[in-house]
Amino acid sequence: MIEQQKQLIIKTAGEMFFRLGIRSVSIDDICHELGISKKTFYVYFPSKDELVAQLLHANVEYISTKMDDLLILNDFKQLVAKFLKHQEAEKNDVRRVPQLVFDLKKYYPRQFAQFQKECFQVQKNYIKDYLWLGQKQGLVRDNLNVELTATFFAKVHSDAVRDLEKIEAQGLNMHLLSHTALDIFVRGILSKDGLELYQ
């Protein structure tokens, strides 16, 4: 029951932050939305800073779960197809993210830095697993430096998230940018057989 209430607060706060931005949503707003007292809120989170930190950590765990679901397929061809489908499904949400990134960088820099660090490591590790699976199945180039490639792509993604509001301020569509980067990445790693399949 205690853990359920905690997760409900994180979920509700996340939805509100996503809609309205982090800075504009107060603890009072979250409590009102949930119909709980501030005293109850403080049982689970000593401050809004701690709520933000735990929400970001929960997001990293969510990313890990999604990555695990892809690896379970144990089929590189299906993995790429599912990943591309997931990218397409997320396109309508990206336009709301820049405000969150701005708020995190300005008002919660410590939490954002930790979040970036965790995301980078998680993404790098999973990309390595994906590439090794692709090599094993003959669809990723044998001569590909897996460690370097995984580090590079995870860094590119991390930097794009960090600079999201700058990217969109230049009139660039983040979804299209992400899709283009993924297409370039996938084409660069594939073997001849893999590229024929992808095309």
Topology summary:
Elements (H helix, E strand, L loop, with lengths): L1 H19 L6 H8 L3 H7 L3 H25 L3 H14 L7 H11 L1 H28 L9 H17 L1 H6 L4 H16 L2 H7 L1
Give a short synopsis of this structure.
With 199 residues, the protein is an all-alpha fold. It contains eleven helices and no strands.
Q: How many angstroms separate the termini? A: 50 Å
* Computed Rg: 19 Å
**Helix/strand order, N-terminal first:** HHHHHHHHHHH
Structural class: mainly alpha
The major sheet is characterized as: none
Oligomer status: single chain
Fraction in helix: over 70%
Number of strands: 0
Strand content: under 5%
Q: Which regions have little confidence, pLDDT < 50, spanning 5+ residues?
A: 91-96
Please report the number of helical segments: 11
Apparent shape: elongated
Average pLDDT across residues? Answer: 87
